[in-house]
């Protein structure tokens, strides 16, 4: 089968753009936060806990990192408020959410 150069280049570009993210690639929690989380957690929209509010985050952080990640992935509704699953951004991976939660904790301790 003979493939022309344009088809070959297009196939290469598709292959590169479709490659899965490897575990060695770093995910920047601050970037994820800024892009997907800041709209609510910078402003307190819908009673979201504001990032950097040490007193407000104290009881949440005390529950542990895995609980906060679970609430961020699965959603949460309770005495401390409401968090939609994946912050309403269903395309975020678990690793991206974990990175954003870690960033929020670092900024709020």
List keywords for this structure.
mainly alpha; two-stranded antiparallel sheet
What does this structure look like?
The chain has 109 residues and is mainly α. The protein has a single domain (24-108), classed as Cytochrome c-like domain (Cytochrome Bc1 Complex, Chain D, domain 2, Orthogonal Bundle), CATH 1.10.760.10. Helix content is 55%, strand content 6%. It is built from five helices and two strands, in the order H-H-H-H-E-E-H. It has helices spanning 5-17, 29-41, 54-62, 65-74, 94-108, and strands spanning 76-78, 81-83. A two-stranded antiparallel sheet has the order 1-2. Strand 1 and strand 2 (81-83) form a beta hairpin. It is globular and about 60 Å long. Mean pLDDT is 84; it is low at 14-20.
How many beta strands in the DSSP annotation?
2
CATH level 1 class label? Mainly Alpha
Q: CATH homologous superfamily?
A: Cytochrome c-like domain
Coarse shape:
globular
- Summarize the biggest pleated sheet: 2 strands, antiparallel
Strand order within the widest sheet? 1-2
What is the CATH topology?
A: Cytochrome Bc1 Complex, Chain D, domain 2
Class based on secondary structure composition and strand pairing: mainly alpha
| CATH architecture descriptor | Orthogonal Bundle
Distance between the termini: 61 Å
The averaged pLDDT comes out at: 84
User: What is the number of helical segments per DSSP (H or I, 4+ residues)?
Assistant: 5
Residue stretches low in confidence (pLDDT < 50, at least 5 long) are: 14-20
Order of secondary-structure elements? HHHHEEH
Helix content: 55-70%
Strand content: 5-15%
Radius of gyration: 19 Å
Number of domains: 1
